[in-house]
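Report of the visiting student (M.T.), summer placement. My assignment was to run the structure pipeline on a short list of targets and document each run. The first record concerns PAS domain-containing protein.
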Amino acid sequence: MRVPEDLNRHFAELYGLWSARSEEGRLPARRSLGLPDLPLILRGSTNLLAVEVQPDGSLDFRFRLFGSLQRMATLAPPTGRLIGEVIPEAGYLDMMRRHYQEVVESRAPRLDQISNSIGEEGQQEAYAYDRLILPLSSDGETVTDLMTCAAKANRT
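After the run finished, the structure tokens were exported:
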């Protein structure tokens, strides 16, 4: 992934930590990016998610850790649930699954700028955020988890 010069500082810190833990082309394990390493990244207006790739190869993913900023945007408590059980809007769910699957298949980080709206017809509120998705692996090869960092963007 080419790192933009204007990359959110928290994203840059997380990407740097992930890169440092990726030795000789092997993907880092989720446990190698533990909470003691993440205090600066967790501060401010960023939000961290840990997502488990389903071992059956389905296009569903399970939330293992769901940051509090992200939780405010959902209808159901997300930790431990499949994304299909938590994300109500079909178009947004399809996009998330597609982005997550691309990271699983490519074994490479992904940076997205996302704009969307929520609410009923005629009362929708626009929002925008940037999202970094990092692949993780329990064996260094197969993607078993994803770490996602999201931050509100200054655009709509």
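The chain has a mean pLDDT of 79. Helices lie at 9-21, 39-42, 68-71, 83-86, 90-106. I thank the supervising group for their guidance throughout the placement.
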